[in-house]
Amino acid sequence: MAEVSDDLEKWPVFLSALSSYSDELFCKPIADTWSIQDIISHIMGWDKSLTKTLIQIINDEQVALQEHPDVQAFNDASVAFGRNMKPHDLLNEAIAQRKQMIRQLKMVSESSFVRQFPNSPYTMENFLQHMFVQHDRHHKEQIVKALQAIR
User: Fold this and answer.
1) In angstroms, rounded to a whole number, what is the distance separating the alpha carbons of residues 22 and 45?
2) In sequence order, what are the residues at sequence separation of 6 or more whose Cβ sits closer than 8 angstroms to the Cβ of residue 58?
3) Which pTM was predicted?
4) pLDDT truncated to tens, each residue of the chain (151 aa)?
5) What is the DSSP string of 73-89?
6) Buried b vs exposed e over 13-32: b needs ≥16 C-beta within 10 Å?
7) Does residue 39 contact residue 139 with C-beta atoms inside 8 Å?
């Protein structure tokens, strides 16, 4: 669990390093039609969703650990949410949201972390690796590549 937490903690550190960039740059499309702001908001949406799931796990509620049934609609809603915020406010909220998610994750028992979830192909550990850690890396690479292109 510590390794996954360490990997997840890299995202807010990366976001903090973006604070010196302009709002204009944050809003410029870099990945298809998404901007840096959109990517940050997209990841924050998933962080919020997982935080709710983690609270249910901590409270011993039955949880289905699986991909969202309508990923496109979820992503669209997350991006739309972020577009209604000032980019640097979003950046700060995304950092706070990830930190909150990590705090909740650290409250999950080790047995809950490694057990297979009912009706799910995942354990919490491989779900986080697949759906969050790799996802963070993918989007971080997009942002870094875009920032290097403008230098």
Assistant:
1) 22
2) 104, 107, 108
3) 0.93
4) 778 889 999 999 999 999 999 999 999 999 778 999 999 999 999 999 999 999 999 998 888 787 788 999 999 999 999 999 999 999 999 999 999 999 999 999 888 888 888 888 889 999 999 999 999 999 999 999 999 987 6
5) HHHHHHHHHHHTS-HHH
6) ebbeebeebeeebbeeebbe
7) yes
